[in-house]
Amino acid sequence: MLDGGQHASTARVTDGNEDYIIRAFPRGHDAALREAEVLPRLSALGGFVPQLVTASTSPDNPLVVTTVVPGGLPSPELPVEVIARQMAAALVRIHALDGVGLPPAPEAPPSGTAPIALRAQREWADLDRTDLVLTHFDFWAGNAVWTGERLTGVVDWAGARRGPRGIDLAWCRQDLALLGSTSAPDVFLAEYERLLGRSVSDINAWDVQAGAIADRRVETWLPNYHGIGRTDITASDLRQRLDSLNARL
């Protein structure tokens, strides 16, 4: 899974008629190449996702130019349970797409010797890796675009993979807990399953995988939460909320 982060310099520009988003990546970064490959696959989602205008995939000047997805960051006052339901509806739409040809994921369990990492390694065989979809691979509230209480789009597709739906589900459930809600992760799952029309039987095993990944670095995600206006959150909040979530798995 990709760590949440602001790894590109982003600017909104206009040609006098239309607005566009330019995302310039660090020299040598392959995100522009990956976004240029995946964005055309998302055309069925229309304006819900950025549409590729042009890209430079040169290692010396990697950048992507896309259309603008209307909306902005989620309001800090937006109830986390509202975020949960909107994220679930968006993810059902995304998971209806075919990820054939994208890099496969995951390839191995998280490394490490922390208790949650060792558990993830033991439970690796319990994961259902046969129900494959197009996964966003960094599906959290900061990669969604909002207009009031309505989610109007999803951005940052460089990490998209072909993998089990549990990857995105567990990552989003964890994010909702890090935002400070103990109920929103289950609200999100229930809404996703309702819209999907069936249950996801191995979600607990995917939650363990996500927890093991976050355990190594959750404090370093603080700038990302501050970047979406959640300046009330501290590094110790992130650690306490993750540890509490992992303890309930």
The total count of helices amounts to: 8
The residue ranges in which pLDDT falls below 50 over 5 or more consecutive positions are 1-5
Roughly what fraction of the amino acids lie in strands?
A: 15-25%
DSSP helix fraction = 25-40%
What is the 3D shape? Answer: globular
Q: Which secondary-structure class do the elements indicate?
A: alpha+beta
Distance between the termini: 19 Å
CATH first level of the largest domain: which class?
Alpha Beta
Mean pLDDT: 95
Q: What would you report as the Rg, rounded to the nearest angstrom?
A: 18 Å
H and E string = EEHEEHHEEEEHHHHH
For this structure, the CATH topology of the largest domain is Aminoglycoside 3'-phosphotransferase, Chain: A, domain 2
CATH architecture of the largest domain: Alpha-Beta Complex
Per DSSP E runs of 2 or more residues, the count of β-strands stands at 8
Reported for the largest beta sheet, the result is: 4 strands, antiparallel
Full CATH superfamily name of the largest domain = Aminoglycoside phosphotransferase (APH), C-terminal lobe
Characterization of this structure:
- This protein has 249 residues and is of the alpha+beta class.
- It has helices spanning 31-38, 80-95, 115-122, 166-178, 184-196, 203-215, 222-227, 235-247; strands spanning 9-14, 19-24, 52-56, 63-67, 132-135, 144-147, 150-154, 161-164.
- It is globular, with a radius of gyration of 18 Å.
- The model is unreliable at 1-5 (pLDDT under 50).
